Amino acid sequence: MRVLRHRIARRVGIATLAATIFALLPFTLSGAGSAHAQDIGAGPNDSSGAAGLRWIIEDQGTQDALTAMRQLDPELANAYFNNSRTNVLSMTNPPRSSVPSGWSAEAAGHYTSYGPCTKDLKGCASLSTDLASGALTAARIPVVMYDNENWNRTPAAEKADVCSAMKDFTRLAHESRLIPLMAPDQNLASPGVITDYQGGESQNWQTYLRLGLGTCAAASGAERYHIMSQPFQSYWCGGQGGACEGSEADFTNFVTQAALQAKAVNPDITMTAGLSTNPRYNVTPQALYQDSLDVGRFVDGFWLNVAGNPSNPGTGVQYLELLSGLLPHYLGDGGTLTTDFPTGATPSRASLGTAGSELTYLSSEAVPGGTVIPVGSYKFEPWTDGTSGSASLDLEVGYCTPPSCSDRTPIVSPDSWHVDVPAGDPGVTSTYTTKSSTTLPKGGPYRIYLAAHVQSAGAFNLLYNTGSNSTNMALPRPSSHPAQAQSSVMFPHRGGQLSARTPSAAPSAKFGLDQQGSSATFTSAPVLGGGDTIPAGAWEFQYWTNGSDGSAKVRLEAGYCTADCRQRTPVIDPAAGWQPALTAGARGAADPDGAFTTTDVTVLPPSDSPYRLYWTVTVESAGSFDLLYDSANAATNMATPLSLPLF
Q1: Across-strand partners of 420?
Q2: Which of 2.60.40.10, 3.40.50.300, 3.40.50.150, 2.60.120.260 is the CATH number of 328-476?
Q3: Do 358 and 457 meet the contact criterion of CB atoms below 8 Å apart?
Q4: CA distance 297 to 548
Q5: Cβ of 552: how many Cβ atoms within 10 Å?
């Protein structure tokens, strides 16, 4: 049985879509949204991926994220963050620039209020106060973030009327020639702050969309909008009331629909999405990378929030390695190398105390003959214990034939890559760059190996096999392990098609809502097989309509069907009560009754495979306007709990 959801290590590729992989990159989004298309996954390793991405990274104050990243891998940090598209966010009050000397990054200040702060609001940072005192000027800090959250740093009135507060903040910023960046937090949608959960809502992102906070951010007149999406980047427990939340689908659904809300108001708005290395989110570099792939069509970049105690900036480095086209291989017990992020609670140890010894690790995954390992950077990221001394290693990387692997063929020879490793190393990287690609011979399969030859010993150990001690070697991503963008948001297209492809046509297609009982069905390509599962979870309807007055009600049905779609099996049947009320003139609106949530996992039967997804819209109560779809300017869609490769 395959559960098609967010856990990268457990996700299995779908045979019918095996070719839908890196050929889909770079992402394209034509029409009004083309400014938000990003080439995710081809980074500084080939001198292209860092270009175009926008970044927010904090430093100075509560989190010295940029400093930590520069200490671990100055080359990588420079490639991604030393440019005019990066905002180095000062968390001090008042803000002061923490852009490194000689860098071209842009300083940004962090504010939690536009109006004055009262004494009871500890940690409150007021834009109006700093402007009045002269503590803030556009010459020193050109960008100001408005981080309105459900916390004690934002006045209650601004939390209660967040849309008006964003307009006021933007007005104040523009009057002083500052660039405002709206960042209304998802916790403003917590029950009891502005409203309560409705319908099937169970997570804040669903209520955030219903409240239209993405629409408000763009309508404020701000040039930039940040989506606080990090709580949904992966599955974790311990959130609101101890709840468990987050998944790849939740992250994709939230970012996609919030970005579409904002773009419907201002097609040129600059947007970023939140990612965090905070261990509380059960985060891995692979999850951050997958999330980036999935939403790269809709946002311009990311806030890489290196937070938590410990903050584990090594996770951020490995994420950037993945963006750069590298694939980290982690040291594991039994002399293994694995591409899965380690989850152990106690670090394993490998002694560096004997000169002339060799530590050898073999990949647990087979690599087929004909695989190409591109030219580029190899990175070694060690963690060690101890408090003094150092060890000298010669590193060798190559391939061999299992099980004995006695026929080792080096790609990086041991006399080429020399590394000095100190005691207490926190994951500082060492880099070796090849001059040509390597094609593995026909036959195989092969294993990748890493051999560390201890030239001079140190009285300490390499640490590995935990998230905070994840010694690894990253190599250019082999052709046998392509990156694969996924989506959980389905768009209806002309001709009755249903697809994860973002609409790009103009003008919009129309489905008339003026006749009760009329219906339209949209079906996908045959993307599901027997044994596949459709997870339980939230389904979120986002819509565009024309007209200026009136309302209509539709009944939505979704499920799977056989190849000719004559035999349909609903996951949400017509009697389930998914009946959104639509208003005329809507642009990216969510169901006013809240998300529809299923509670049962659906397992597809082995017979009659493959299957298509279908979505039926039926008019329950008519209105004199149309549902608009299949357009860059009217991208009506259905967010689902199901993550699939783009099709």
Answers
A1: 392
A2: 2.60.120.260
A3: no
A4: 30
A5: 24
Contact 108, 144 (CB under 8 A): yes
- The model's pTM is 0.92
Distance CA 285, CA 177 (A): 37
Question: Collapsing DSSP states into helix, strand and coil, what is residue 258?
Answer: helix
Q: How many residues does the chain have?
A: 647
To 5 degrees, how large is the angle CA 281–CA 286–CA 288? 55
Q: Are strands 383-384 and 461-464 parallel, antiparallel or unpaired?
A: antiparallel
CATH for 486-645 (2.60.120.260, 3.90.600.10, 3.30.460.80, 3.30.10.20)? 2.60.120.260
What does the pLDDT look like over 50-95, one tens digit per residue? 558 999 999 875 568 999 999 999 999 999 999 999 999 999 999 9
Residue 435's contacts (CB-CB under 8 Å, 6 or more residues apart) are 375
CA-CA distance, 242 to 238, in Å (whole number)? Answer: 4
Q: How open is the CA angle 593-594-599, to the nearest 5 degrees?
A: 120
CATH number of 38-325: 3.20.20.70
Q: Is 72 helix (H, G, I), strand (E, B) or coil?
A: helix
On the question of pLDDT at 635 being above 90, the answer is yes
Question: Which residue type does 545 have?
Answer: T
**The residue type at 174:** H
Token pair recorded at residue 287: 């999850």
Q: Which part of the chain has CATH 3.20.20.70? A: 38-325
245 alpha carbon, distance to own chain's centre: 15
Delimit the CATH 2.60.120.260 region(s) of the chain.
328-476, 486-645
